[in-house]
Amino acid sequence: MDTLVARKLSVSAALAERPVNVIDNLDFSLAPGRILGIVGESGAGKSMIGRTIAQLLPSLFSVSQGELMFDGQDLVTMAPENRRELLGRDIAFVPQEPMSGLNPVLTIGRQIDEHLARLKVGSRRARFDRAIEMLEAVHLPRARELLSKYPHQLSGGMCQRVLIAMAFASRPKLLVADEPTTALDVTIQARIVQLIAEMQRQDGTSVVFITHDLRLAAQICDEILVLYAGRVAEYGPAREILARPSHPYTRCLQLANPVMGGVRRGLFTLPERMPGLAALSGLTGCAFASRCPVVQDDCRTVTPLPVEIGPAHRAACLHSSLTATIAAPELPVEAAPSARAPLLTVSNLGKTFRIGRGFFRHESVEAVKNVSFELADNEFVGIVGESGSGKSTVARMLCGLETTTSGTVVVDGRDVSSGDAASRRHLLAYAQMVFQDPQSALNPRRRVGSIVTQSMEATGTGGRAMRLARAQSLLSEIGLPPEAALRFPPQLSGGQRQRVNIARALCAEPRILVADEIVSGLDVSVQAQLLNLLLRLRRERGFAMLFISHDLSVVRYLCDKVLVMYRGEVVECGPTAEVFDNPRHAYTKALLAAVPPDDPSSAWSSPAESSDSDVAASNSLWTGTPESQT
Amino acid sequence: MLATVLTLIGRRALLSFLILFIVSVLLFIVLRALPVDPAAMSLPPNATVAEIEAKRHEMGLDLSLPRQYLIWLSHAVSGDLGSSIQFRRGVLGLVASTLPATIELAVLAMLVASVLGLAGGLALFHVRGTAKEPALDLGTVVLLSLPEFLWALFFILVVGVALRWLPFTGRIDPDMRLPVTTGFLLIDSWIAGRPDIFRSAIEHLILPSLALGIAFSPAIMRVLRSSLLDVYQEDYIHLARLRGLGEKHILIRHALKNAILPTLSLMGVQFGFLFGGTLLVELIFSYPGLGNLMVDAVRNADLPIIQAVGLTYCIVVLSINTIVDSLYVILNPKLRLQ
Question: I need a surface site. Which of A26, A175, A311, B178 has the fewest CB within 10 A?
Fold first, then answer.
């Protein structure tokens, strides 16, 4: 008997005048010991599936038809007490944000003990022994010591291991992992995914693996279900789907993702956004029609049903034969970076943080050591590394947000590392920063127009009308309608907010942009839009950029040069193609190996073999380097 | 954890000396700027100008202000805060005999405010999203807008005068006598083995502490409710449900422990205000505490008492803040040193 079967499952939201199906006619089955990947952009309804399994739907949401059978019992109609009995015991969950998944005021030991008590594991002593066994099973060293720690004393990867240990404590029949690695570093992602696969094999657990990353899903899942606006776009064996995507949406997602190997190709940009709840309510025809590159007339009137296109492979497209014709755009020809004197020269840059609150006791952490590089006009340089490697500190020092401890920063022939008022002015005339999280970087109570022209406000240039005109021209440059100037940030989507964030930095006509993780946390389609936008803006107006990212494929697509940082030091640097194709340093090799390969049939090899560096690195996190708190 | 708490208390103690010094200087300047002449007041009304001048010289009032302050400070450091002009008794003794009464009242009132506040906060949280919510919400707004002296008058009229259930003047029945050991009636009556006095003291405390406590409870209710609402948005609550834990267990073991933190820091601030609020309540209930002493001193321009009581309030508020911050460290693991 299959572990989890959905038949004609629909979840509707009673939001507008008529109910809207946020999950529509979902059909799938998950056999024991198999892994089903659920893939799609945010808003596709991926997480709603996990919530439906637990029947913890938001208010106004309810299952409107169909059934969801777990082990032969319908979860939807089951009595709540019986369902609660299943949760945590037969159905376990691993969350997206491991740090916030654990209660901050209780020790790890207390939380594991509570879970074991819920599973009716005998005495306190037995639960203690069991807890240590569990932590050792997920390869956490010094388990006994760990039990008395609080979540904030652990790294994200360690917290996720603790949560995985708890999830597998009862040898559940079903595990629901909702983006379990999105919040983690790429090397840790690889280990966590492999840990889930290892535990799953041992216990014969079925897994629902929810992710936005098609490549990752293809690596570990047996089957993949591509979800679009709550509807099944494509469903079938994982390798089959990646090798022969039959729904245009799957193909577009695949082409929006930068490749790690082979020839660099252009990124496919899906226009606009997935229809929201309001747009879905009156929808006729295919939900993807508004964004589909191969849309036909009948797509807007006829609702496609999933049709068999191969063994166990279904796609809900009227014209699935056209999918193969969708191709990646040509890579735009870039002007070579100018060979003139470098715009920015960083030599032996260092930063030491003093921590500790004692009167006399101070500990110091060298967050950045001896970093040197040059940035030429029109050149994009990437900095890659794990969190805590010091890459954000470098960015902040370059923008004057952090003082330097040692070394020099020369901008267009002038040393600005002293940090006095004159050199700050000089620096800010050249460099502007784009921050990681547009939600917190944009003041929610100011209109987009005044946010974008903040630098004019600071220098006191221009009146109201001039600022509005400038805002509108900047907005059209970054692909937003001029009316957006009058909106507030919360009225925009995540991708639009990040565009506004970029426009704000561009307002002062900087020759250097410092961009700190500006595409992480965004959907691949939005990411592709932003990356292409940055390339287009460089062609149109010309600027250099320091691009900080943990995503190697993005850096490979965008950057001319790359610096690899590890524990505050640059361990390798050079032209991107050279570093990625022929890495010299062991750390660079480990980083590259941690990225799931483009081709699902090639093995995702090495990360597990090297030592558990998330655990090792987090030992240093216990002393609290500044970046570990971000 | 203990080390952290001790460090905190030590550091606070050092800081407190500085704060007390500044407050005492301010008080001294303000009181000397008042248009009252302590020398003239301490003499009979028919004293001549020459007699007053002589008295001024005797009291040191003809010296410069800094000199006067230094003299006061050197006495204060050795434990002599001067003597009251109207009672002709040491100020320290007066404060020491009235402070315990006020502390008893304030602690009991805080207890009332906490119990009501926590219970009300839980009730407000419990009815969230139901039809009862607006009604309860309105109730807290009404509570919030009624000051403690209105509650005091209400209780005196209803419980004291109309129903005659409880006494509403003084600390104990006027015919009771008790040797002073600590000054705290609730403790002294136990030491002396007099349950009747203990009972009487409690009865006298009920109305004033209810009046004061009720007035301070709605803010606690509202903060607890809103921090519970915040905590219930957190992933670990959702995940606890996904582990099959019951709602009651989640509330008590997971949500309250986190929601109590902001509530606690509010209660610390509230306790400072509440201590100041005793002044009015003591006046209404003729309760012989620090408040009544202060009001009396202000009325008679008894500068040494005003100065001493002002400093006492300052010390009490500083101590409360230190206690609350220590509790905060104990309850919030993130604040503990590693």
Answer: A311
Q: Is the pLDDT of residue A272 over 80?
A: no
Domain ranges of chain B: 98-302
Please report the pLDDT score of residue A550 as a whole number. Answer: 87
Q: Is B28 left (phi over 0), alpha (psi -120 to 50) or beta?
A: alpha
Token pair belonging to A246: 């039959």
What's the predicted TM-score (pTM) here? 0.84
Q: Give the range of the structural domain holding residue A123, as residue numbers without chain letter.
A: 104-169
Which of these three, A265, A294, A325, is where a domain ends?
Answer: A325
A520 is written with which tokens? Answer: 């992480």
A521 and chain B: CB distance < 8 Å anywhere?
A: no
Q: Tell whether the torsion through CA atoms of A151, A154, A156 and A159 is positive or negative.
A: negative
More confident residue, A279 or B130: B130
Sheet holding A61-70, edge to edge: A20-30, A4-13, A61-70, A73-74
Nearest CA to B193 out of B206, B175, B207, B181 is that of B181
| Alpha-carbon distance B338 to nearest alpha carbon in chain A (angstroms) | 8
Predicted confidence (pLDDT) at residue A560 exceeds the cutoff of 70: yes
Kindly identify which residue of chain B lies nearest to residue A172, measuring between CA atoms: B243
pLDDT at A170: 92
Is residue A96 one of the residues assigned to a domain? no
Of A325, A352, A373, the residue at which a domain comes to its end is A325
Residue A341 phi, psi dihedral angles, 5° rounding: -55, 145
Reply yes or no on domain B98-302 having CATH 2.40.30.10.
no
Distance from CA of B253 to the nearest CA of A (A): 9
Question: B241–A114: do the CB atoms touch at under 8 Å?
Answer: no
| Residue at A457 is within a domain | no
Each residue of B221-266: pLDDT tens digit? 999 999 999 999 999 999 999 999 999 999 999 999 999 999 988 9
Residue type for position A407: G
Report residue B264 as tokens. 């606690």
Chain B CB within 8 Å of residue A104 CB = yes
Mutate to test the interface with B, among A86, A94, A102, A105 (most CBs of B within 10 A): A105
Using one digit for the tens of pLDDT, what is the confidence trace for A111-150?
999 999 999 888 999 999 999 999 999 989 889 999 999 9
Nearest to A57 by CA among A9, A3, A118, A112: A9
Question: Mean pLDDT over residues A28-36, rounded?
Answer: 95
Question: Given CB atoms, is A279 within the 8 Å cutoff of chain B?
Answer: no
Sequence-distant (≥ 6) Cβ neighbours of residue B256 within 8 angstroms: B228
pLDDT at residue number A605:
61
- Evaluated on CA atoms B30, B33, B35, B38, the torsion sign reads positive
Residue A18: Cβ-neighbour burial (10 angstroms; 0-12, 13-18, 19+): exposed
Q: What is the ipTM of this complex?
A: 0.82
Q: Which residues contact A553 (CB under 8 A, 6 or more apart)?
A: A257, A258, A259, A260, A595
How is residue A59 written in tokens?
A: 């208010």
A88, A95, A118: residue with CB nearest B235: A95
Give the closest of B129, B239, B253 to A101, CB-based.
Answer: B239
Tens digits of residue pLDDT in B48-57:
888 888 888 8
How many domains does one find in chain A?
Answer: 3
* Span A364-416, pLDDT tens digits: 888 999 999 999 999 999 999 988 888 999 999 998 888 899 999 999 888 98
* Contact yes or no for B333 and A104 at CB 8 A: yes
Let me know whether A34 and A65 are in one domain: yes
Judgement on whether residues A285 and A365 belong to the same structural domain of the protein: no
Residues 106-125 of A with CB under 8 A from B: 106-107, 114-115, 118
Query: By CB neighbour count within 10 A (0-12 exposed, 13-18 middle, 19+ buried), where does A487 fall?
Result: middle
A103, A175, A619, A622: best to mutate for the B interface, most B CBs within 10 A: A103
